[in-house]
Amino acid sequence: MVTSRDGGTSMPPYAGLNLGDHVGDDPEAVSVNRRLLASRVGRPVQFMRQVHGAQVSLVRAPGPPPEADAMVTDAAGVALAVLVADCVPVMFESPAAVGVAHAGRQGMAAGVLAATLKIFDELGVDRSSIDVTLGPAICGRCYEVPADMRADVQRRVPGSGSETRAGTPALDLRAGLRAQLATAGVGRVVLSDRCSAESGDLYSYRRDGRTGRFAGLAWLP
Ligand SMILES: [Zn+2]
């Protein structure tokens, strides 16, 4: 499940359901928004302190946010949340365990998806039972980067290089992640075609600078 700006209490420039508590928004508004989300999913929501890396945390019960860019749980009493505003929210769903990952340029290149799947392996979850969703994120025609950065990321993650509409160097994060998943042995891979920078109902750091964060969530029923 992925949230949007709809239904929250934050004021501009965070207007809507901002779930990020590290972006300068009123802490009271963020905590009301987080309570609204928890009541919508019917269980406590576990957030993380995201650091653009590939650290994965195994969660068994709600607690303070771990310093991590991915979480996995085999417990039904908690929903896992990843916060984004252009980076890719990745949801892993299997009958035995679920996970979320924060996959931006750095996390993708650092191998956050592979690190997350390794935790599923350690739990004994069959990879073919895991469906992976790559949620709304900045698209390959909007995410302009310097030419040397594109070359570096494309070398580390083949398939991630792209071009903007103007023909300048860009990255397509979801294409790179899909390429990484192609050999990972997972079940279904679903790609959202929504671009955060082109969708006014989503937060986009590239478009707006100071702004909120929306969330991708996964939980066991
Ligand atoms: Zn776009």
UniProtKB/TrEMBL annotation:
<dbReference type="Pfam" id="PF02578">
    <property type="entry name" value="Cu-oxidase_4"/>
</dbReference>
<dbReference type="GO" id="GO:0005507">
    <property type="term" value="F:copper ion binding"/>
</dbReference>
<dbReference type="InterPro" id="IPR011324">
    <property type="entry name" value="Cytotoxic_necrot_fac-like_cat"/>
</dbReference>
<protein>
    <recommendedName>
        <fullName>Purine nucleoside phosphorylase</fullName>
    </recommendedName>
</protein>
<keyword id="KW-0862">Zinc</keyword>
<dbReference type="GO" id="GO:0017061">
    <property type="term" value="F:S-methyl-5-thioadenosine phosphorylase activity"/>
</dbReference>
<keyword id="KW-0186">Copper</keyword>
<feature type="region of interest" description="Disordered">
    <location>
        <begin position="1"/>
        <end position="22"/>
    </location>
</feature>
<dbReference type="GO" id="GO:0016787">
    <property type="term" value="F:hydrolase activity"/>
</dbReference>
<dbReference type="InterPro" id="IPR003730">
    <property type="entry name" value="Cu_polyphenol_OxRdtase"/>
</dbReference>
<comment type="similarity">
    <text>Belongs to the purine nucleoside phosphorylase YfiH/LACC1 family.</text>
</comment>
<dbReference type="InterPro" id="IPR038371">
    <property type="entry name" value="Cu_polyphenol_OxRdtase_sf"/>
</dbReference>
<keyword id="KW-0378">Hydrolase</keyword>
<keyword id="KW-0808">Transferase</keyword>
<comment type="function">
    <text>Purine nucleoside enzyme that catalyzes the phosphorolysis of adenosine and inosine nucleosides, yielding D-ribose 1-phosphate and the respective free bases, adenine and hypoxanthine. Also catalyzes the phosphorolysis of S-methyl-5'-thioadenosine into adenine and S-methyl-5-thio-alpha-D-ribose 1-phosphate. Also has adenosine deaminase activity.</text>
</comment>
<keyword id="KW-0479">Metal-binding</keyword>
